[in-house]
Amino acid sequence: MKNLTSLTVVDLQKLLEKFPDIEITYENKTLNLYGFKNSISCAIAELALQVNNKMAGHFSSMIDQMKISTDIQWQYLSDSNDWKNFSVYLNSLIESNYLKKESKVSFTNESNNAACIFFNMNPMIYLIDNKRINVRRIDMAQLDDNSIKIPSNWISINSGSDFYLADLNPSSSEYLRVSYQFISKLQNNSVRISKIQRVENPYLFKQYQIFKEKFIKVNKNPNEMKLFHGSTHESLLKICRFGFNRSYCGKNGVAFGQGVYFAVNSSYSIKYSVGHAISDRCMILAKVLVGESCVGNSQMKVPPNQPNSEIPFDSTCDPGKSIFVCYHDNQCYPEYLIYF
Description:
Blueprint: H1 9-18, E1 23-27, E2 30-34, H2 37-71, E3 72-77, E4 83-85, H3 88-99, E5 104-108, E6 114-118, E7 125-128, E8 131-139, H4 140-143, E9 164-167, H5 173-184, E10 195-200, H6 202-217, E11 224-230, H7 233-242, E12 260-263, H8 266-269, E13 282-289, E14 293-295, E15 315-317, E16 323-326, E17 332-339
Parallel strand pairs: 14-15
Antiparallel strand pairs: 1-2, 3-4, 3-8, 5-6, 6-7, 7-8, 9-10, 10-17, 11-13, 12-16, 13-17, 15-16
Helix pairs in contact: 2-3
């Protein structure tokens, strides 16, 4: 009998227990059965049933894996500086661990190397033999939606670039609007803005816009707010390039939930804005889809359900609604980088 590679040693041991009067050998990828004719016939029928069940299970698993890769695709940045897809199997393995909110997933990659992806790093890191490689998670449905256009005033619109930081003219209305929002929410009047950059990231922008459309499609108010997010200069640059990562939460506390934190007042975020030099101090002004919010606590990994409903809140907040916590990476877009 051939094509029995789906069977295991345990399966064959169970077969011998059920048919003790037969003998089994395995040579040249062929399974040989010896014994009385009736016993052999029954054993073959049993084997065929086991193989069919296992093949059905494998086929079902393959279908599930293919469905995942149709919706979500994990990619890594190759040595040639372009994004490569993981295999269907690895894509499914990585996504399932990501959804379980694991801190990392270890596996053997397509080149038979021991590898690991750290979800709780910002940006996420793909590690092979101490070599750090960028990795990203793609929502395929969002990429296929061509109805969303990036803003016409973006400098990068005709360059084909996937990321650009555009310096704003200090005399432009855009600069004045952003600077007013920053300065008006400060308690320290001595702080002066040195530069404002507009974050032009088509991929992140498109994901954010589609997340916003989901609110509108169900007649739900997205409650879009302009909120501040402070961190180190290096971290903020990574956010502008790769997006917010809720797996990295906890660095500055999780009092109102285990997600990404935003503040109404720049005076709150400024204490988290540190740099190697004074000129490096900066913070992000982000567009955030707050939606329906409730007061959070440090145990919340996701927002709780709304009262008498199976529908969860969209975010959590502090009692004064001056701090908001988001749990979906596409729920927020880093619109401006403000240096001071």
